[in-house]
Fold each of these.
Amino acid sequence: MTVASSLEFLNETPIDEELPPSQSLLQQYEKMIVTTLLRSFALDFMIKDQNGGNVDTPLTARKYGLKDEAAQGRYGSRVEYMDNSSLYHSAQNYKDKNRQASELRDKGQLKDSYTGQKIARNERYDLDHTIAAKEIHDDPAVYLAKLNGVDLANSETNLNHTNYSINRSKKQKTMTQFLNDMKDKQTTYDARINELKKKGMLSDQERKELNKLDNLRKANAEMMKEADAKAIWRVYGKARFLAETSFLSF
């Protein structure tokens, strides 16, 4: 396949409109960078089919698997996340962010990144990896680029403080999964909140349940989407990340 026909193929390859906006943006950037490489260096490579062909990129690595043998080795030899999770929660950036949060909370200045509200001095809160550490740990594209998952997960914009209930409910979900889950359960949550508030006396368990539901309903979808977009751009969207993972096979 010539450079001209390769470019024609790339130009005719549609962007998947069903992808979340963040992933669609990545797909557009990836296409742009591969096109630029072709034009700049006149690389004549073979694209066998639309299932990634001989091209290893973040998107094809995630969808079809890794083709580069060295990257396959790195990915295959990774340890299980649960055996390695402490590294993600003991990184210096993670500890520094928590220390700063503690100081801000004591001054009454700590703000919840997902609700926009101030976190009270006596309120339980967590430091959330907006893009879950496990998602990064198990992402083939990270191993393709030979990047450090712990460093990526603990990028400044990927560390966001939020109330205990939101973080413990989000767990390892993507932001899209969490927000969809919240939307599906909204009616159920509201009904239960009203039911509990109408009761005269609540048990300790019921008070905890009401507090949890109230905290969950404070989640601001737009703020969470914005935090997610910033995290994705910092962790995955840099040209360096995409360029280093746009390997071309001949």
Amino acid sequence: MPIFSSSVRPKCDLTVTRYKNFSVQICQDRLATIQSLVRNDETLLVVCGIDSHFSQGSQQLFDYLLFNVNQKRAAEIERTKLEDEHFDDVVLSIRRNRVQVYLNPANYWFYLPYVACWPNLDIHCAPDALFDDQDVMEELKMKFLIQAVDGCNSVCVAYYGKESAGFSPMLVEKWPLIQAYAVDGFGVGTFFTLKHQLRDVSKDVFGLIQSVDAVAVEDLTDKPLKPFKNQFDSVFQTIDFLAGRSEPQLVLEEKSLNQLIEVIV
């Protein structure tokens, strides 16, 4: 059960029409695929934003599970006038048969539709009245972390991005959230790596992220087709323009058109 007040989780009513490039089934499949990497006595910890020094691995895994929501709905985020740190304030604890999510009152309703369909989900979110009390919010986040890793001998992290290599547990120990874990009276009073082994699953995670599903195909076709369409529109406009020119001018303009086509191809 959540360790502090949380709104009742509403029924997930997402449709591809309402949220483009989203599928409830694929959302659940992506989570299940990531859960397959986690052993019975482990949790996969995903810490976003400043709490992990903007870990590339955590962010890419978060983007994969939530369909790059921050990029796709960037205009909506900008209209909120909230700082980016409010949307980065997310922690996921993924076990084989359970998921715990820490959100804050600012990003709760934004991310909720993308995680609401996950099975065996616990969402931890402070009441709106506590949002402006930074000390209380940090304390609640620490309580979430302590509970999220409780009983886990090993904690998985996707520390690096696909371009990185090498891993040391001490790199994770430097994360601000993990450092706070060791503060006596705030965390548990001992270093995180003394209580939990750290296992880097970056290679496995990014191997799965590279796999192609229906939404990934839709994303791939969305991005290149728009500039490609603009290029062809430019070609057709040039053709229409040439159709009204005299023959000597047409010979010169035809060379320009051929050069343009070569650039496109």
